[in-house]
Amino acid sequence: MPAVSKGDGMRGLAVFISDIRNCKSKEAEIKRINKELANIRSKFKGDKALDGYSKKKYVCKLLFIFLLGHDIDFGHMEAVNLLSSNKYTEKQIGYLFISVLVNSNSDLIRLINNGIKNDLASRNPTFMNLALHCIANVGSREMAEAFASEIPRVLVARDTMDSVKQSAALCLLRLNRTSPDLVPMGEWTARVVHLLNDQHLGVVTAATSLITTLAQKNPDDFKTSVSLAVARLSRIVTSASIDLQDYTYYFVAAPWLSVKLLRLLQCYPPPEDAALRSRLTECLETILNKAQEPPKSKKVQHSNAKNAVLFEAIALIIHHDSEPTLLVRACNQLGQFLQHRETNLRYLALESMCTLASSEFSHEAVKTHMETVINALKTERDVSVRQRAVDLLYAMCDRSNAKQIVAEMLSYLETADYSIREEIVLKVAILAEKYAVDYTWYVDTILNLIRIAGDYVSEEVWYRVIQIVINRDDVQGYAAKTVFEALQAPACHENLVKVGGYILGEFGNLIAGDSRSSPLVQFNLLHSKFHLCSVPTRALLLSAYIKFINLFPEVKATIQDVLRSDSQLRNADVELQQRAVEYLRLSCIASTDILATVLEEMPPFPERESSILAKLKKKKGPGKLPDMDDSRRSVNGSTEHSENTDTTNKSSTHSFTDVLNLNSAPSSGANLLIDVFSESSAPPAATDVSEENFPRFVCKNNGVIYENQLLQIGLKSEYRQNLGRMYVFYGNKTSTQFLSFSSSVSSSDALKSQLNVHSKAVDPVIEGGAQMQQILNIECVSDFSDAPVLNIQFRYGGALQNIAVKLPVMLNKFFQPTEMMSQDFFQRWKQLGAPQQEVQKIFKAKHPMDTEVAKAKVKRHKSLWL
Amino acid sequence: MMRFMLLFSRQGKLRLQKWFTSMSEREKKKIIRDMTTMVLARQPRSCNFMQWKDLKIVYKRYASLYFCLGVESQENELLALEIIHRYVELLDKYFGNVCELDIIFNFEKAYFILDEFLMGGEIQETSKQIVNRSIEASDMLQEVRFTDMHAQMHLVKHCDLHLWCEHVTSVAWLSV
Predict the structure, then answer these.
(1) Name one GO molecular function term (chain A) (predicted).
(2) Interchain pair B76, A14: CB under 8 A
(3) How many CA atoms lie within 13 A of B93 on its CB side?
(4) A174:B121 CB<8 A
(5) Which among A63, A133, A247 is the nearest to B115, CB-wise?
(6) Which among A103, A523, A614, B166 has the fewest CB atoms less than 10 Å away?
(7) How far is A103 from chain B (nearest CA, A)?
(8) What pLDDT tens digit does each residue of chain B (176 aa) get?
(9) Could you give the domains of chain A?
(10) For position A860, what pLDDT does the model report?
(11) CA-based angle A410:A415:A416, to the nearest 5?
């Protein structure tokens, strides 16, 4: 029997490891490690050639040190020596080191690849396996380039050993994942499919993994695998007589292979061939039947393996979504698991039912388990199980049970774990909106949300309730009354103050008839919260006050007094001060008519996808949410896509002015406001925008964008994904200083939401003959066609200079290459059939073509390629 | 596919790390930190699965060691649990009543065993016998001096590859 000390144990290594373990402190450990590193370094650098054993021992020590979390920057060369050794143990350690400490040094990679090449050609299966493992572990592009064409040959060669076939299949799978473009499809693909018939179940398992991955990308090429997979599965599942020997795991026949075959089948629709289809159905039924049989062993491994196959079979049934009886049986089976004593099974049943809920055949069957799921929410001890229960309730919710589910979620929210509160809040908000028949219920629900979990109510949620109240006049009076009542609470959440301020400011008049909520009472109530709130909320309240002045002339004087107080007019916050000054002035000088126009009720918001839904999607990642039918999209069932989910990202002190997407609503007030106050500062006279050099930058990133007698502006830019950085160099061509130098970037209104440009401040002085640099950070939010403009102002010899330059930030700067197989490309290409998608333009060349020059150019390129 | 496998002690000391996709050292450290804190904070008798970003985390405790596997979202959790168990069985068979110390002092062996069992984030060989046999065969290889091996290889040079291999495995069986 093997014992710990077997093989050639390395005593020096064991001593070192126990030294490290005996270190009393982190410092002592580091000291010991540094000592060892110095020792190893001197050994490696020493004149005496090390024997294989010592080299192996030291490399192992380095590996150990690295795995402790320390950086290792040497030893690679020794490791490469080891892996080229003919001694198995040395080779093994060499490969291990290289696999763990991947290095991108190209000389080294050449040597490593050389070693691998020799081992692959050695026809020694143990060496070949080591080499294949190393390729799979490193998986770099260089390795893919060197070996991607060789490995398929090894895989399908007639005389390859089974274990090498397994390694080759998985190695190829890894390379296909990292560098799909380098793995050539070819005649080997057909032969790989036939590995599903192999005698050796280990080979079949590895091959199934490979085929599944390949089939996900090119389903058509691997269609033939479906019938083979069904046949294989059926042999494993239905025939009790076959002895699978060691592939039986705790009395379950080949669970890993079964699950892999079921996964492969999930790459395809149900088979069209009737015989094949019924054979598959028979398999699935057998698996479902087996779940009802008494267990063959009490070991958890037995039930895990058995249920793993069962869950995968259910996943396939859900994927096919075509056999109502199977779907309902699957649902009943999961229903049993919901009450199982194993927490793992309850978790998985909840998870699996979530996908089942979106099938039309089983949605009703899932709903019958609602009480159990609600109970799980209340009693499960494990937060991850409760999280699944919330997900399932969300998925099974429809008009018939929405009120109950929302109520249960709300009551759970009071005690929910902090980690999942925000998500529950989003879900409740979405369900409440989606299934609201009468909107009073919706308003109540959201106000409850704010009351119970105010801190977790994100901006999206309270923007949304305001959008909906503004768009639906049947609920406005109720909303005003409810927020008024809610605000009575001695301590209410700031989010409630925001909603309350906004709604009373718009619709306070609807409840002003009642003396208990007269204008003055409303105002005093709001103002009693004012001093407890943060700046953005105060700003919102100030806007509510000016709206009050318009709604209720009788409180005008009171409000003006408040605005006039020092704490407002001289507030340290510039936004609050400005609002107070402007609103006060507006209320004093404007006539009632102007006031009424400026402070008119907000126009309805354009319908769009709920930004809450977008947020939840972002949180959960794509594919995590069941599909929503159209009525779920927005109040009126419009499916217009959201263009505003990113408004909150715009960071500016004024963010609260557009939080409600006021910028996209036709707001009648804004323009008038500017008119009232425009006397003081006229906008700087427009200058012509220079775009002379603009086209030059279409395909290049660096160069001179602008130049006149005084100033030269150079650009250097780099782009990565959606981000860009531009260095702007201002060169003073004169010998005199530029004073009051300033430069800023402006964008058109449309562009502002598509492209964020942030410029760093610059020094106001540029010395004569000097150059100054400014950095612009650019973020592309969505596609755009305008370009931002760089505005420069400075004084030269007393005269003010204005220069505007169109900045060459174009959409193509953010393009990224994508890799696709020729098939995918042509498939997409062929879809571009519409006449407006095709353009051809023939024009006369400006310059004649010189054959000699062209030849020379072609030749040069050719030589480069070779 | 599996993305990583981590073994750590109850004190959060990492004992083994295996990454099946390439990642920067920084990312690895972040994952190690997140996993140890998340898993160690779990109550006893909780379920063995967690959602973390877009991955499913499957973990199980054996004596003082936690085995933690990060798998992609379409993977089967229960089988991932059994992958962990199979690995423990393999370690147990090799070391004989494996304990944390065996893995600390023979970390390279723990890696070799894992490499026989998993590859590229997929299971390579599910048969315990076959994995054990190949691990023992390679242990035998290191005891056969190279010169002998070389001689043997010369002898069988013109024979079928199969025969040569059977010869080696039969040497391994002798030791059982």
Answers:
(1) clathrin adaptor activity
(2) no
(3) 17
(4) yes
(5) A133
(6) B166
(7) 11
(8) 999 999 999 999 999 999 999 888 889 999 999 999 999 999 888 999 999 989 999 999 998 899 999 999 999 999 999 999 999 999 999 998 899 999 999 999 999 999 999 999 999 999 999 998 888 887 777 654 444 444 444 333 333 323 233 333 332 222 22
(9) 11-42+51-101 (no CATH), 397-599 (1.25.10), 694-813 (2.60.40.1230), 822-860 (no CATH)
(10) 57
(11) 80
Of A205, A216, A418, which to mutate for an interface test with B (greatest number of B Cβ within 10 Å)? A205
Which B-chain residues 1-30 have CB contacts (< 8 A) with chain A?
1, 14, 16-17, 21-22, 29
* SS3 (DSSP) at A702: strand
Strands B14-19 and B49-52, by their bridges, are unpaired
Query: In sequence order, which residues have a C-beta less than 8 Å from that of residue A264 and are 6 or more positions away?
Result: A208, A211, A212, A215, A225, A229
**B97-119 core/surface letters (b: 16 or more CB in 10 A; e: else):** ebbbebbbbbbbbbbbbbbbbbb
User: Running DSSP on this structure, what letter comes out for residue A4?
Assistant: T
Q: Name the band, by pLDDT with cuts 50, 70 and 90, for residue A305.
A: very high
- Closest chain B CA to residue A164: B124
pTM: 0.71
- Residue B37 touches partner A, C-beta closer than 8 Å: no
For domain B2-126, which architecture applies?
2-Layer Sandwich (3.30)
Candidates A174, A248, A257, A302, partner chain B, best to mutate (most B CBs within 10 A): A174
Cβ–Cβ under 8 Å, residues A628 and A533: no
Determine how β-strand B65-72 pairs with β-strand B55-62. antiparallel
- Identify each DSSP E strand in B47-146 by its residue range: 49-52, 55-62, 65-72, 118-119, 122-123
For residue A685, the one-letter residue type is A
CA distances from A692 to A25, A453, A687, A808 (A): 67, 56, 15, 11
Residue type, A722: N
Tell me the C-alpha distance between A713 and A698, whole Å: 17
Please give the residue of chain B at the shortest CA–CA distance from A316. B74
- Bridge-based pairing state of the strands B2-9 and A711-720: unpaired
The bridge status of strand A252-253 relative to strand B14-19 is: unpaired
Going from the C-alpha of A175 to that of each of A163, A491, A828, B5, the distances in angstroms are 18, 60, 25, 20
Residue type, A654: H
Please tell me if residue B140 touches chain A, with a CB cutoff of 8 Å: no
ipTM of the prediction: 0.82
Contacts of A404 (CB under 8 A, 6+ apart): A370
The H or E element spanning position A428 is helix A418-434
- Contact of A348 with chain B, judged by CB distance below 8 Å, is answered with yes
Kindly tell me the burial class for residue B23, based on how many C-beta atoms sit within 10 Å of its own C-beta (0-12, 13-18, 19 or more): middle
Write the CB contacts of A643 (distance below 8 Å, at least 6 apart in sequence): A608, A664, A753, A782
Measured between alpha carbons, how far is A313 from A329 in angstroms, rounded to an integer?
A: 12
Q: How far is A310 from chain B (nearest CA, A)?
A: 10
Q: Which residues of A are annotated as a binding site?
A: 11-12, 43, 53, 57-61
Residues 527-586 of A with CB under 8 A from B: none
pLDDT value at A17 more than 80 = yes
Higher-scoring residue by pLDDT: A461, A619: A461
CA distance B91 to chain A (A): 11
Q: How far is CA A688 from CA A685, A794, A862, in A?
A: 10, 16, 47
Tell me if B164 sits within 8 A of B153, measured CB to CB. Answer: yes
Other residues' Cβ atoms within 10 Å of the Cβ of residue A727: 14
Contact between A253 and A242 under an 8 Å Cβ cutoff? The reply is yes
B72 touches chain A (CB under 8 A): no
Amino acid at A520: L
